[in-house]
Structures are given as structure tokens and as C-alpha cells.
Design a protein that fits this description.
The protein has about 240 residues and is mainly alpha-helical. Helix content is about 65%, strand content about 0%. It has one domain (about 45-235): Alpha Horseshoe (Serine Threonine Protein Phosphatase 5, Tetratricopeptide repeat), CATH 1.25.40. It has helices at about 45-60, 65-80, 85-95, 100-110, 115-130, 135-145, 150-165, 165-180, 185-195, 200-215, 220-235.
């Protein structure tokens, strides 16, 4: 029998990637200022957009998320109704593994843009990293209400359910994520784990090998390669 190796599954959303890694309890209190938003706010949209543009350059070109954070914080301070600024701030906090701050930023984005499915996806992803699976499930289900065809939201909700041991409930969401975007690497890892739980070594092997084909240098690649080798060895011994 092949063992069920449960991997730490990285959530990847392109181009705005919500990167997950080991948990962090750090909280940047300077970000959560609870800025008041009045019915007729005084807004500085041009300056806010310029600050966000500077942040995007620091994040995507210079690969400096810490510096980018300051630009995005300045952006939403200039315009507390600027949803994109909050989304980019949340993305940056995710890269810095500051899950609580990321949650706050995405929640602010959802407040100013209540129909923004990506904002609720971000909230759910940040809550998953804080092991608040009930809260994550609520946010992710709402994200899917707003955008049912989101492979990323189906995948993240599957991660939530799997973390709660609800593998049967997770499976349809993994399959849906793959059906929507078969080239999305992460769901193949989770699907492989589901097959292992069902003692379907051949199915698991196919999914893990597909992940390696799609993302051979990904964060999970070393672990997946080890599991592939162990599955093949176990299958040969049958």
C-alpha cells in the first residue's frame, strides 16, 4: 500500500500571486490604521495611482516587497477608497508572509469593492494561512458566489476543506479547478493526495507527474519528486 503523503500546498494566483509558506504571526500595526471613509471622501486619485505604480515597479521589477509595501500603504492613505491599492498591499503582505496584515488589506478591498471576488479570495487565502478554516470557507464560498468560474477560488476552498479533513467535500472543487484550468499546477498536487487517500497509486502518480511537468522548479517540486519515486518503488513491489 502506498502511504498518503500530505504536502504543504502552495496557492498560486497569476498574475497576482498569493504566495503561501510557513506561518508567521508578525503584524504590521502601521498598516491597519482604520482610516475613516465618509460618504463624500476627499480623494487624491492621481497621487494614489502614482504611488501604486511605484509600488508595482518595486514589487515586480525590483523584487522588493518590503519597499513596495510602503508605496501601497501611501497609496491607500492618499485615497482610502482605492480598491486596487488595498489588493496590491494584500498581495505584498502575502509575499512577506504577514498573513494578518494581508487579511486586513483584502478585507479593506472588499469593503470598497463589495463585488470584487478576488478580494474575498485573498481574505480566504490569508485566513487559511492563519488556520482559521471556518472563516476562510465563508470568504471563499462568497468569492465563488461572485465568480463561480474561478479555478483559484475552487482550489483555495479545496485546501480549506482538506485542512479540515473533509477530503470528499474537497474533491469536487479540485476537479473543478483542473477542469477550468488544466495548466494550473497546484490543484494537481492536491488531486494526487486525494488519489493516495483512495489508494489509487496510478492516479496519484499521474497527478504528481503532471505537476512536475507544469512547474518543474516550483516550491513543491522537491517533495513531489520524492513522493513520485516512493510511489514508483511501491508499485514495483506489488
Amino acid at each position: 500500500m502506498v502511504r498518503n503523503f500530505l504536502l504543504a500546498i502552495a496557492f498560486i494566483l497569476v498574475p497576482a500571486a498569493f504566495l503561501t509558506a510557513q506561518d508567521s504571526s508578525s503584524q504590521d500595526s502601521s498598516a491597519n490604521t482604520d482610516q475613516p471613509r465618509m460618504s463624500q471622501p476627499k480623494r487624491l486619485p492621481d497621487e494614489a495611482k502614482l504611488a501604486a505604480s511605484e509600488g508595482e515597479k518595486l514589487l515586480f521589477k525590483n523584487h522588493d516587497p518590503k519597499a513596495a509595501t510602503e508605496s501601497f500603504k501611501r497609496s491607500v492613505k492618499l485615497d482610502p477608497w482605492y480598491g486596487h491599492g488595498y489588493m496590491m498591499l494584500g498581495l505584498t503582505y502575502m509575499q512577506l508572509q504577514q498573513w494578518g496584515d494581508a487579511q486586513w488589506a483584502f478585507e479593506e478591498a472588499a469593503k470598497v469593492e463589495p463585488e470584487n471576488a478576488q478580494a474575498f479570495l485573498g481574505v480566504g487565502s490569508a485566513l487559511n494561512e492563519q488556520h482559521d478554516y471556518n472563516g476562510a470557507r465563508k470568504a471563499l464560498e462568497h468569492s465563488l458566489d461572485l465568480k463561480p468560474g474561478s479555478a483559484e477560488a475552487h482550489y483555495e476552498l479545496a485546501r480549506t476543506l482538506a485542512a479540515q479533513g473533509k477530503w470528499q467535500a474537497a474533491e469536487p472543487h479540485v476537479r473543478r479547478a483542473i477542469a477550468i484550468n488544466k495548466d494550473y499546477p497546484g490543484p494537481h498536487v492536491l488531486m494526487g493526495n486525494i488519489y493516495l487517500g483512495q489508494e489509487d497509486a496510478a492516479g496519484a502518480l499521474a497527478e504528481f507527474e503532471e505537476y512536475l511537468r507544469l512547474d518543474p522548479e516550483g516550491n513543491l517540486a522537491p517533495e513531489v519528486k520524492q513522493i513520485v519515486a516512493q510511489i514508483k518503488e511501491a508499485m514495483q513491489q506489488k
